Each structure stands twice: as C-alpha cells, then as structure tokens.
Amino acid sequence: MKWYEQINESGIHSVASALGLTIRKNMITPCPACGAEKRGTNDKRPPIGFIKNLKGWTCHKCKATGNIIDLIAYTLQDKRYRELHKEDRKKVMNWAEENKLYINQQAETFKKIISTYNLTDQQVPTNNTPEESNSPFKWEKDIHLKYHNNLYDMPFGLHVIEYLYDYRKIKDNVIRKFQLGAMLDQFDNIWIVIPLRNKEGEVINLKFRSLPKQDEKKKIRHCSGRPMTLFNIDNLDHHYDTNIIITEGEFDVLAYLSANPNINVCSGTTGAKSNWPDDWLDAIEPFENIYINYDDDETGKEGADKLSSKLGKERCYKMKCDTYNDFNEYIINTEETAWLDDIQKFINKAVSFQEHIALKTVSDYLDELEELISNPQQLRGLKTSSTRIDSCAGGIGAGLWVITGDTGHGKTTWATFECWYQAQQGVPIMLTSFEQSPIGTCQKLLRCQLGQDFTKVSKEQRRTAMNQLGSMPLYILDQYGNALLQDIISSIKYAQRRYNIKIALIDHLGFLINTDQNTDERREIEAAVRELATIAIASQLTIFLICHPNNLSNVQQRRVKISDLKGASAIKQDAHVGVVVQRQPITTERPYPTTTLYFDKVRSEFGQAGSHCTLAFDPIACVYKDEWVSTPAAQRGAKIIVPNK
Predict the structure, then answer these.
(1) By the 8 A CB rule, do 187 and 76 touch?
(2) What is the DSSP string of 230-263?
(3) Domains in the chain, start-ordered, CATH in brackets?
(4) pTM to 2 decimals?
(5) pLDDT (tens digit, 9 = 90+) per residue, 132-162?
(6) 3-class state of residue 621 by DSSP
C-alpha cells in the first residue's frame, strides 16, 4: 500500500488531529485554505465539513475542497497537493511518514468517537479529541517558556526578534513581559508564539502566527482543545483608569503597551466578528468608556458594531488611528516621540456608536410601511398566556405596561406568572423584586413550574423544577429594597444587550422614588414613568411596572382605576397599557377563584381600551387560565372549599 493510500485509509479525523486542527464532530476549524474559523456571520459552525465517506472535505466559506492529502498540503503549503512542486510534495510525504504512527494509533480511537455522532447531545462524550498529539501545535504545560527562550538561545529566534522589534516596533520589555516566543516546525517554518493568559495570569493556550514570508498569507494556529481568553485580561485595572481600548489583534495590544505601558488595552483572540463569551464581556463591564479600535475594513467595522451592541453603544466609541488601518501600523510608520500624544488625540476624536438624531423624508419610510401592510401581525407583539388578554390588550408589544390594583389582589402574582409563561416560550425576561426579597419571586416561579405547593413535593422534585427554571431565560436582579431609577435603567440596558431580554418586570415603582419631605413625589413619579416609557420604546422592549394606588377607591367603594395612581396624568399620557388587577369573590356561577383584568388604557389597534376579562386563578400554583378546568388544581382533581357564611 502506497503512503497516500495508507493516509486515506486512516480517515480524515486522525489526520486533522495530527495537523493541530480543531475537530467538532464531522467538521473542523480553521480552514487551512482561507483561515476562516466559522462558515459565516450568522452560521457559527466550523467552516469545513466532511463528505460521507470521511475521505474528502469542503470549506463552506471559501469553497476550497479536496481529499485528505489536500488537507495536509493546504495546511503545510497553502495549495492543493497536485499544485505543488516536486520539493513541496516531498515535504507533504515526509510529514505523513513522520506522523504515520500517531495517525494509525488514533484511527481506531476516532472510529469509536465517530460512532457516537448519531447519539443525543447528552450521550456524546464531552472530549472527542485525543489529548496526545505529535502536532507542532500541541499543548504542554510551561512549554511557552521553552519557546520564549528560543528567542534568545536559537538562531531562528533572532528572525522573530528582528520582526517584532525592528519591523513591528514592539519594545523589548513588552516582548519579555508577555514571554513571546519562537517555534520551528519540522518543515523549518518559523512561528511566533503568543501565550494567552486567563485573568489570574495563568497561561491556558498558545497562539501560533507564521513568521511572514514574501507573497505568503499569514497562518494562525492554536493548541487544539484549549480555552480561549481575552489577550491581556490579566493586566486590566478599572480602578486605575475607567477607560479601555479594545483592539482587533494581539499585535495592536503589544503596540499600545510599547507606547504606554500603563494603558488599559485588550483584544479578542477568535476574530473580529466572533461572539464574545460572557466572561470576556464581564471583564469589560466595569469600564465607563470603551474605545473600540478595530481595523478600518468591512470585517473590522462589522465586528466593532456587533461588540458595541453587547457592551452598550452609549459608552462605546469608534476609534481610528488617522489614515492607518490599526495602531501597530501607526507606530510602524511614525516616530516614537509622537505616540503618547497621538493616543490621546485618537481618543479625543473617537465617535460614539450611539445613533444620532436623523431627519428623514416621508418617502424614507416607504419600505417600513409596505412591510407593515404585508405583515400586520408583527404589530400585535407577543401572544400572552390567555386568548382573552390578547383580545383586550392586542398582545404584548414594546412599551410601558402600568399594572395596579389593591393590596392582596395579585398584581405581582399575575405579572410574574405572565413572565414565567413568556420564558417558557423562549422569551428572555428580567425580574426585579424590591418589595419582597428575590427568593420570594423564586417561590412564585417554583409554584408555577410545579403547578402546586412546592413544600408538598419531594426535595428531588423541587431540585428538578429549580433546574428547569434555571435553564429558562429568566434573569432576576439581585436587589432588595430601595433602588435608584438610573441604576435600574442601567440594569435593564445591560440585560438587554447581554441576554436580549424582551420583557422587564419592575416591582414596584415606589422603591424607585425619593419620598423625603424636600421632594415633590408627584413630579418624581411623572418623570420616572416618562423615562421608563421612553426607554421601552427606544429599546423595543416591554416594561411591566407595578404601581400601588391611593385609597380613593376604598373611600368611594369602587374598583381601582388607573386614574387613582399618583402621577396619573403622566401615566395616562405615557403608558401604553394600563391594567387593574382585581380578585373576584367565589360565586355559584363561578365556584372557584377568579381574577378580573381591567384594561383602562390600550394603545394597540388590536386591543380595546376599557375592556376587561376574567381568568380562573389557581392560588396554590399561582397560575391563571381562561377556564378553571385548565388550571393545575383542576387537573389534579382538587376541590374548592367554600367556608359557610
């Protein structure tokens, strides 16, 4: 059997592993032809897929294709095997011979792994890639120290130092601080090695970047199976400076630190348009002003806009380096004496990502109008838990819902149930609970989830239900007691950009209002209602705002109305929906608990102001249904006990 036949028989998984590529089921990343790490902006899957016999592959990004030998050739020489000269073909053959033993050893392992690919996600082993590898990009603890020493001890290290120091203008103290290194692979290719550290300063991965050759595209590799991190995350300090610069790549970070070693600067390590994980975003969250200095090309612009949406456009700024593509290009072409002053100049010239007010003509809205005519249902918003509520309110659309009612009539219980229902449909929800501690909200949600009293079930049932709730898009603000309105608005904006929330429940307005004797409480309420209504529309989300009424309804012996609230004039003007929640007595016609929702105000053209609906209420499960037979209590066969009068 010829050498290439042996390689083909081994299978593409074992060969990809030997090449240091990352394997995810029948896909690998990055593409050795184009360097892509995913298929597209909206398709996060690895770019390379395998053909059914596992002996061929296709990149869904650049459309490169080939057999297993071509995969090796692209990785080592940037071309398909048949396009290589004789000497380069020999290098591919030599690599195959040198790695033959490893490839053969892993062939059986991958046959077992491949057999699991048709199982459920819970059944698939968590680590599908063999940890041992003869790849030059393998992971070993503290191997970065060897690569760093190569800079000064090995002849090929001199080429890396010359490139970093003479061409890139990276200072020697920065090179030593970050322990940059050099690696020589079996084909005499030189690689720059960049250690990647977590926030504790521990090296958790290595990034390999090919030393540029004339007319050769750069190559990037990582240690397979290792976590990624923000570059320079371990040196960020928001206490020292509340400003931070985010660059597109590691060399730009090194360039900034060569100009100013005290600056807060970092970069992602997975590409400009990649989705940042939560721990990366959390590291940036404490900073007040974020300057995004991505490359001035389409990829950089798209990536910067995407990142600013996650971090908050109101505090993010587009930063450019005059006519240069990035900061490293800037220092390569300028004198060191100008670096410090120019950094400040670039910061001062940065432009906010926040959209500015724009003037448009009527015709600019033609497409939007036609879309509404073609799809009028989008104006209805989300369907509620009840067809009766949908008829009254016209669904849950963006805007401010003011929810009120007498104490003990269930305004918080109904709003919490509706939020639980929406979360069940996959709608992200933010909950606040200033009047009762957050655990009180958890208890209501647990009753909804179990459909009964959580104290009457086993510990295992409670644990299962709590885990189910934990997997739903429900996010509780851990705040009890009074809070500042601006802090709550900031929390809502944070939850929207990080978790894409669609509904925020604020319980209740009184905890956001300053009630000391020097404050005009009515004006405070009006200002808060107006600001929350504005935020809801501008952010295209729904805010459920719980409000307590005054005592006028009790004095006049009638139900509560929206007009009974302090600041009622602002509520009438700014609220999009006004709901009054009122429990009803058990009657012979309805021999079970019921609650009536009065919609005193409805802006939606699909709803009806002044309408009302009555729902069956299961007080044990905190669940509302259109009919009693649909409640958990009725389905369990529970009987309603009515005390004798």
Answers:
(1) yes
(2) -BTGGG--TTT-SEEEEESSHHHHHHHHHH-TTS
(3) 3-114 (3.90.580), 143-222 (3.90.980.10), 233-352 (3.40.1360.10), 379-635 (3.40.50.300)
(4) 0.64
(5) 456 889 899 999 999 999 999 999 999 999 9
(6) coil
